[in-house]
Amino acid sequence: MRIRLLSGEPINSITQSMNTLVLICAFIMGFSIMTVELLGGKILSPYFGGSVYVWGSIITVFMLALSIGYLLGGKLSLKEPNTRKYGVIFIAASLTTLPLDIWHSELSDWVFMQIEDPRYGSLVSSVILFLIPTTIMGMVAPYSVRLLVANAESSGQTAGFLYFVSTLGSALGTIMTSFYLVLWFELDSILYGVTIVLAIVGIIAMLFPKPLPKAEKAELINE
Amino acid sequence: MNKLLFALCAAFIVLCVAPMDGEAKIVEEERSLYQNVYIVKEVGLTCMRFRKKSHNDLSQSCIFDERPKELVFDYYKLAMGATFFLDDPKDMLVIGLGGGVLVNRYKEVYPNANIVSVEIDDVVADMAKKYFGYTDDGEQYETHVRDGRVFVKRELRKDRRYDFILLDAFNSDYIPEHMMTKEYLEEVKGLLKPGGIIMANTFSSSALFHHESETYHQVFGDLYQIHFEDEKTNRVIVVSNDKLPEIKELLKKANHYKPLLSEYGVDTLRVFDAISDEVNWDTDAKILTDQYSPANLLK
Fold first, then answer.
1. CB A87 within 8 A of CB A206
2. Fold of A28-208
3. Using the beta-carbon criterion (under 8 Å), do B184 and A46 form an inter-chain contact?
4. What residue spans define the domains of chain B?
5. What mean pLDDT value characterizes chain B?
6. Domains of chain A by residue range
7. CB proximity B15 to A under 8 Å
8. Which of A31, A26, A23 is nearest to A171 (CA)?
9. What is the DSSP string of B95-122?
């Protein structure tokens, strides 16, 4: 699928490439979220086992965090949305995954010492490890929609296409992590990889040139 | 004459077909949190399975209906080799109760030992009691329904120590990934009394063999493997937190237990001959850790 902008004005090439950037960023974020979520099982299983309730804890916290993230991301997009702020979200996501990368064993061990029941142990660990980074990761989706949407008429289609791209990223992140990444790399290497990729994406988005003000009127269509 | 021939043929067919006819009857099935647990009766055996398919090697536990004491699987027989290494053990730990077939035999061999059994699946533990004659009546015996690794970590904190630990936790594929890693083995090693013995039931028929063997090697140093020449799949690993006895020193106990274990269909001298200290794995294989344990992908 190719994205082209239609408007009365000459096609604004910066806007077009911004749309491409946003879609790539959203794809990478979708990928990263599922990579971290899947590794969550590996992080927690030495302390709380590999039972269904460990997965229940992880998925609960991810869903909760994403829902909060959507709310905050939407709110943030109201005020002068631009790619610089968009990049900051990625950098914040990258930074908040750092404690997870560095201390996941120590934190899980600490919770293991405090809570005997592996259900609540895994739930509390998931909150400590994943709630904040995943919340910030969740902010990307609504913010992406805001950057892409040109007018009210096409907004549903734009949002739909954005979800398509980011969820495709999630699907690929899930299968790549569970089938291949864990076979090729160590757990920590993959986690640090996510942190670094998010930081790079954030920097690129921040450095992206500002689109022209007229871009607001451009129309995004799928062709 | 023709009639006689016909009758003979018919009898022959009936005899051949009859056992197949009675094959694999599911007497109970229950869905647990982890898997479907099937109790299957076939050709004089009662077996516990996690899959419906009728292959003997997928059975988790089996007993003969007529002679419940006699051990069915080769790996059971290999695991009775533990007796060669133990001197009147006081405290024994079994991670992965399954049908409890081995625990039942250990109870008879060591009537004075305290035996703690850990099983993640309460349905499996119930089936062990219902179909395989397992009981934990009496103060000596405990059954814990818990993830084996979590249990081991908790025991470390409680400062409980064991003379013998059997690692026999399996799901429908193989050993769970978080129970094959260096960190797990170090935790289990920490539960041993000085000179204690760990025995692990494993397979020797996949690429994982090298990674798994080298992981044990790194954590414990020397290890013995027990596997029958003519049977490729099962092998039992024996390790200690101290120096293992010389193989020839084990012969005395193999002889001592010969009469008792023959009741279980175990030829202790055959098991003794199956003990090997040969390094038959690739020592360059990457070890399994909490960081890297794609066990089921390497399989």
1. yes
2. Growth Hormone; Chain: A; (1.20.1250)
3. yes
4. 2-64, 74-298
5. 88
6. 28-208
7. no
8. A31
9. E--TT-HHHHHHHHH-TT-EEEEEES-H
**B101-135 burial: b if 16+ Cβ within 10 Å, else e:** bbbbbbbebbeebbbbbbbbbebbbbbbeebbebe
For residue B17, what pLDDT is reported? 43
For residue B294, the chain A residue with the least C-alpha distance is A183
More confident residue, B247 or B24: B247
CATH class label, B74-298? alpha beta
- DSSP letter for each residue of B10-22: HHHHHHHHHHHHT
**In the annotation, is B137 catalytic?**
no
Nearest to B147 among A49, A105, A186 (CB): A49
How far is residue B127's CA from residue B290's CA, in Å, rounded to a whole number? 32
Tokens read off for B238:
């024996």
pLDDT one-digit tens code per residue, B16-34: 444 444 567 889 999 998 8
- Token pair for B248: 């020839």
pTM, entire model: 0.85
Tell me if B209 sits within 8 A of B281, measured CB to CB. yes
pLDDT at B54: 60
Q: How far apart are CA B282 and CA B97, in angstroms?
A: 31
Say yes or no for a CB contact (<8 Å) between A48 and B150: yes
CB contact under 8 Å between B290 and A51, yes or no, is no
Share of chain A above pLDDT 90, in %: 80
Give the ipTM of the model, two decimals please. 0.79
pLDDT reading at A179 higher than 70: yes
Q: What is the pLDDT of residues B36-65, one digit of tens each?
A: 899 999 889 999 988 876 655 567 899 999
